[in-house]
Amino acid sequence: MYKIDTKLAQIGNRSEQTTGTVNAPVYFSTAYRHKGIGQSTGFDYTRTGNPTRQILEQTIADLESGDQGYACSSGMAAIFTVLSLFQSGDEWIVSKDLYGGTYRLLEEGFNKWGLKSRYTNTSNVQNIEKEITPQTKAIFLETPTNPLMEQTDIAEVARIAKKHNVLLIVDNTFYTPLLQQPILQGADIVIHSATKYLGGHNDVLAGLIVAKGEKLCAEIAKFHNAAGAVLSPFDSWLLMRGMKTLSLRMERHESNAQMIVQFLENHDSIGDVLYPGIGGMVSFRVLDEAWVNPFLQNLNLICFAESLGGVESFITYPATQTHADIPEEIRNETGVDNRLLRFSVGIEDAQDIIDDLTKALATAKKEVIIND
Amino acid sequence: MTNQYTFQTNLLHNKHKIDPATGAVSVPIQHASTFHQSDIDTFGKYDYARSGNPTREALEEVIAELEEGCRGFAFSSGMAAISTAFLLLSKDDHVVISEDVYGGTFRMVSTVLVRFGISHTFVDMTDLEAVKKAIRPNTKLFYVETPSNPTLKVTDIKAVAEIAKEHGALTFVDNTFLTPAHQKPLSLGADIVLHSATKFLSGHSDVIAGLAVVKDPALADKLYSLQNSFGAVLGVQDAWLVLRGLKTLHVRLEHSVKGAAKLADFFQEHPLINKVYYPGLPDHPQYEIQKAQAKSAGAVLSFDFINEDVFRTFVNNVEIPVFAVSLGAVESILSYPAKMSHAAMPESERTQRGITNSLLRLSVGLENPDDLIKDFSNALDVAKKTNLIHNRG
Q1: Does residue B40 form part of some domain?
Q2: Which chain A positions have a beta carbon within 8 Å of B112's beta carbon?
Q3: Do residue B116 and residue B54 come from a single domain?
């Protein structure tokens, strides 16, 4: 068994015997010829199974120590596919500090079909146990949470999940299997927006699911095929191409993030800095809400855009971007307030990033004073 | 530009024929998953690619124009388009649906929607009385596939849409088999038209895609919200491939339809064929309806052999067509519905719908129809000999 960075570099190599290609071929073919009745090669129709997508699916299953992987057309499609395992009357317990898209899916989608979500701060495990009812069928965790970077003890939640016979689903987008392997800590299902660190180049939308257990895997496979929110062969290939450098990228994201955290903590315009100590995601609050817009407008290097996990540095304003679907009073209650910014630290030179932040903060403060 | 030209010209000369930034005549593939914003209060048109991407948008606008709807949506597969559209329904709603619907749609309705508390009744949509009888107070949707798969039954879209309107329900039509080149369900009263764009629209067996076009802007807003929430969106490379395929839709379909008509005649006259299903044959029960609501009978036909032995020998001896699932490609594709597209359907349900163990579906490609006839004749000759030997034995 190789180590994870070796596995990443080797994705797709030795996947094909005919030509010896070291790079996974992209199979665009939608249909696969049968020699005769009942003589399938294992591939029939590409929604059900595609040779390129399969390499990606096997890779992520291996990286996450699960039994089977599934590639979906977006992170939301992955979450949707997993949540469809349940039925009317079921309940989920969900991290209160949650990606806005997931919140929207639960409230505007599943709620309509009779499935209820109970939100709680999952970083305190006792909160979870309090919310469990006879209808509870799953616990859905983001750890660290988005954007408040709170960590949940997966192993401890897994014990509660087992005790009450409910599934534990973990969104591992922020850490990737490089930093956290939820299945090894007792989770049943891991979800990724692979658009983020796994893809890493802001050039492909993709979602991944990994599950453990034969019955659960078969159920997900059924719905993955039935609903058809599958990832295309080209995008599967692009994602694998990105994953080959995940280890190097994450190392740099993390060392840059640590330097930037130090800088932000010592800056007199910055209030709280939220960073769990590992990974490339940092959230922070500026002292004055009025500085937010001019600060973002004066950034020259860092990009003001939604999304995260790419090689380029991104700053997101959760209040109007990722979390715009969550009502303001809930946002304020959880801490996603109007002074909060989320920083996906890129792999540029750390000093260049710090210089950009310094200049933009100084200019923003000046502009606000002049306007007053 | 809309309505100024014929459909054939519109396929090539639409809003997206020239990229405004560079003058490129092929829509650029925008891989960006996210878009830089210059202000926190007013965002640009694009922020995150799941919510909107210029390449996918080009395809969405083109299909909306071709289907004469207000807005189009591109999905990661035909089933993703169909599933997302179904999810406009809520718990306790009811669907009336074509009984010989595509196996994947059958599976979605009968195993997934029921878990969300959405019920259904399968009916023979060609029988309008049966359609009316299936209506319940909570019926919110009529789901039509015409011609149906694989027995090519034709539903009167206008009549079903009228029944739906009387009951304040929606009508969805799966237009995969005919495409807007030959049938425009929205102009016949449907509310949403759905496509497996993997088939004739793209036409090259090289991309999986689904499309939906909505007539009414308020309903379009709801579908947009679901598309964005579930995220079963089409990748940009794939959106571009569909756009590329669309450019030749008219010529491809025209050629394949001619071939299908020729082959339908050929099979109908052959003694080893028990039954041919093709709405272009004058003895097809809905021949007149098809003629009235569509420009052609399409490029797909099904045929049933006199027995399973003949069928097996035929399959083992044909050379040209690909024996595979799917349809609507440049290559002719021969499918075995019982074990392929309709494998998800229990045998009792299948047989009742005419999907026997000796039924084959043929999607006619771009080969010369005479070559196909020659190939099929040869295979049938082998079957004839084997069958004679069997009969003697």
Answers
A1: yes
A2: 84, 223, 226-227
A3: yes
Give the pLDDT band of residue B391 (cuts 50, 70, 90): low
The verdict on residue B387 lying in a domain is yes
Chain A CB contacts of B31 under 8 Å are 203-204
Domain-terminating residue out of B192, B215, B246: B246
Contact A30 B207 (CB under 8 A): yes
Are both A8 and A101 inside the same structural domain? Answer: yes
Three-state secondary-structure class, residue B241: helix
Residue keyed to tokens 């965002």 = B43
**Structural domains of chain A, count:** 2
Do residues B277 and B302 make contact, with C-beta atoms less than 8 angstroms apart? yes
Q: What is the DSSP string of B315-368?
A: HHH--SSEESS---SSS-EEE-TTTTTTTTS-HHHHHHTT--TTEEEEE--SS-
Domain co-membership, A236 together with A262? no
Best of B208, B309, B323 to substitute, by most chain A Cβ atoms within 10 angstroms, is: B208
- Annotated catalytic residue: which of B46, B50, B258, B291? B50
Yes or no, beta carbons of B49 and A205 under 8 Å apart? yes
Task: Find, in chain A, the residue whose alpha carbon is nearest to that of B77.
Answer: A228
Judging contacts by C-beta atoms under 8 Å, the chain B residues touching residue A298 are: none
Residue B35 tokens read as 């878009």
Identify whether B1 is part of a domain: no
Please answer whether residues B54 and B21 qualify as being in contact, where contact means their C-beta atoms are separated by less than 8 angstroms. Answer: no
Contact B231 A195 (CB under 8 A): no
B329 touching A (Cβ < 8 Å): yes
Residue B275: which domain range?
249-392
Give the containing element (helix H, strand E) for A283: strand A281-286
Give the CATH number for residue B357: 3.90.1150.10
**Contacting residues of B for A304, CB less than 8 Å apart:** 36-38, 40
Would you say residue B2 lies in a domain?
Answer: no
- Can you tell me whether residue A9 is helix, strand or coil? helix
Q: What is the CATH number of the domain that holds A107?
A: 3.40.640.10
Same domain, A46 and A149: yes
Pick from B37, B80, B208: CB nearest A30: B208
Tell me which chain A residue has its CA closest to the CA of residue B341: A45
HSE-CB at A319 with a 13 A cutoff on CA atoms is: 18
The answer on B199 and B295 residing in a single domain is no
pLDDT in tens, A116-143: 999 999 989 999 999 999 999 999 999 9
Residue B132 confidence (pLDDT) above 80: yes
Same domain, B175 and B218: yes
Name the residue range of residue A351's domain.
246-371
pTM: 0.86
| B83 part of contact set with chain A, CB < 8 Å | yes
Residue of A nearest to B344 (CA): A226
Token pair listed for A327: 């009502």
| Catalytic option among A5, A32, A47, A359 | A47
Burial degree of A165 (CB within 10 A; 0-12, 13-18, 19+)? exposed
- Cβ B187 vs Cβ B178: under 8 Å: no
Number of domains in chain B: 2
pLDDT, tens only, B290-319: 999 999 999 999 999 999 999 999 999 999
Question: Do residues A36 and A60 share a domain?
Answer: yes
| Domain final residue pick, A217, A243, A269 | A243
Residue B236 backbone phi and psi in degrees, to 5? -70, -40
Question: Does B117 contact A88 at a Cβ distance shorter than 8 Å?
Answer: yes
- pLDDT per position as a tens digit, B232-283: 999 999 999 999 999 999 989 999 999 999 999 999 999 999 999 999 999 9
Tell me the nearest-neighbour CA distance from A37 into chain B, angstroms. 8
Q: What integer pLDDT is reported at residue B393 of this predicted model?
A: 47
